[in-house]
Each structure stands twice: as structure tokens, then as C-alpha cells.
Amino acid sequence: MTRDDGLDVAGLQRRLAEFAAARDWQPYHTPKNLAVALSVEAAELVEIFQWLTPDESARVMESPDTADRVRDEVADVLAYLLQFCEVLGIDVLRALSEKIDRNERRFPAE
After folding, report:
1. 22-54: per-residue pLDDT in tens?
2. Of 18, 65, 78, 104, which is the most buried if we count CB atoms within 10 A?
3. For residues 33 and 103, is the Cβ–Cβ distance under 8 A?
4. Is residue 82 within 8 Å of 16, Cβ to Cβ?
5. Cα 18–84–92 angle (5° rounding)?
């Protein structure tokens, strides 16, 4: 799937792999290490919201500095998730689609 701006999952995974290869980081990109890194980055995203009220959290993107932090942490989470999927051969879009299908069967709308 490609967006109008040319971004797609496979292309981003390629860029991430090239970035890691240029720095000889592939030996460290094991499923375990990537899962741990993903967890750490997700925790850093949670940290931004930790003490906010629900109303404050809904307005978090109104502050340019906080919005930048949120976007950076979202990018880190997605980067590690895409690398994790690449290493294990998981088609992330197919996995999500299949999970939605299972949830639709498990939790039917009334």
C-alpha cells in the first residue's frame, strides 16, 4: 500500500534496514532486542501522558514542543515494530487485518 506521498510500509522497512546496515547494527536487531526496545519506546510515549488529565491528554498536540515529543515517540515505536516484523517475516498490515477480522467475530456489533 502506497500513499500519495510515496510512503509505504515496505519502503520504510527498507530504509530502516539500510540505516541499521550502514552502522553494522544488524547483529543487535534480534527479535528479543527489538521487542525490548519497542517496549521502552512505548513507555517513553506513555511517560508524556502519565500525569495528564483526560482533557489535557486530548489537547497534547496543541503545544508544539509536546507535539514534537509525541511524534518522535510514535515514530520510535513504529520503527521498532516495523523492524521487529521485518526480522520475523510478519506482514504487519496483514496481521492487523486478520486481528480485526477475529475481533469482529469475537465482539459482534449489536
Report:
1. 999 999 999 999 999 999 999 999 999 999 999
2. 78
3. no
4. yes
5. 100
